[in-house]
Design brief:
Blueprint lengths: L1 H14 L11 H13 L3 E6 L4 E5 L1 H7 L13 H5 L6 H11 L5 E9 L4 E14 L2 E18 L9 H11 L4 H8 L3 H15 L4 H11 L1
Antiparallel strand pairs: 1-2, 1-5, 3-4, 4-5
Helix pairs in contact: 6-8, 7-8
Length: 218
């Protein structure tokens, strides 16, 4: 029912604009569209699907995160990693696969997002693409808060070490464990141990997911 509510309200939002004429280079249209996002009672993100990055969050979501700005620059690729709990990183991969497959229909996902007090709260989100010349160029996500997670997150964020990055690069290039061990002058057991830790940190389950993950977000 919650996703149905989000989908319904996303359709209402889309119906208020002529998406055939969607043009963020048009200042009048952009101002009107962003104003509409800020008047909406839901938490909203506008995504650039060609660059796989956020473009805009409405005032409600900006206040939740404790951010200073609504608009993101071209360097803000790690917005998703800074705001999403590591156990929810899998939704990023689900999103990439959805949009790589054309972005048709709704993408319904669950998230754990970090608020301005460094605590995670659970959200349900529905995302729908905006098509320009039959190609998914942008997407809008409507989020609904479910509950607050009390676990504080003042500890350091998940980090990938230099050695782990080296192993990821070699592994994603198609090298087998034995070859990686030889190239890095370490044991095969050590390589396997690093891979196990990498999978756990990033929430991926196999080499295919690891390759897809870093192809799109590294």
């Amino acid at each position: 029912m919650a996703f149905e509510e989000l989908q319904k309200n996303l359709e209402i939002l889309f119906s208020e604009y002529s998406l055939e004429d969607f043009d963020l280079h048009n200042e009048a249209f952009k101002e009107s569209f962003f104003s509409g996002l800020n008047c909406n009672p839901y938490y909203i993100t506008l995504h650039d699907l060609q660059k796989l990055k956020p473009l805009y969050i409405n005032d409600k979501l900006k206040e939740f995160y404790g951010f200073q700005n609504n608009i993101f620059s071209d360097i803000d690729y790690f917005y998703y990693f800074l705001t999403i709990h590591p156990t929810s990183y899998g939704v990023l991969l689900d999103s990439v696969i959805h949009f790589k497959n054309g972005g048709e229909g709704y993408l319904n996902l669950e998230y754990k997002l970090k608020n301005s007090d460094n605590k995670y709260e659970k959200f349900l989100g529905t995302t729908k693409s905006i098509f320009i010349n039959k190609k998914a160029e942008y997407a809008v996500t409507l989020l609904m808060k479910v509950e607050t997670f009390s676990k504080n997150t003042n500890q350091k964020p998940i980090n990938i070490s230099k050695r782990e990055r080296e192993i990821i690069k070699l592994y994603c290039e198609g090298n087998e464990v034995k070859k990686i061990a030889s190239l890095l002058n370490i044991s095969e057991f050590t390589v396997k141990s690093h891979l196990k830790n990498i999978y756990k940190k990033l929430g991926v389950r196999n080499a295919r997911e690891l390759s897809s993950y870093f192809e799109n977000f590294s």
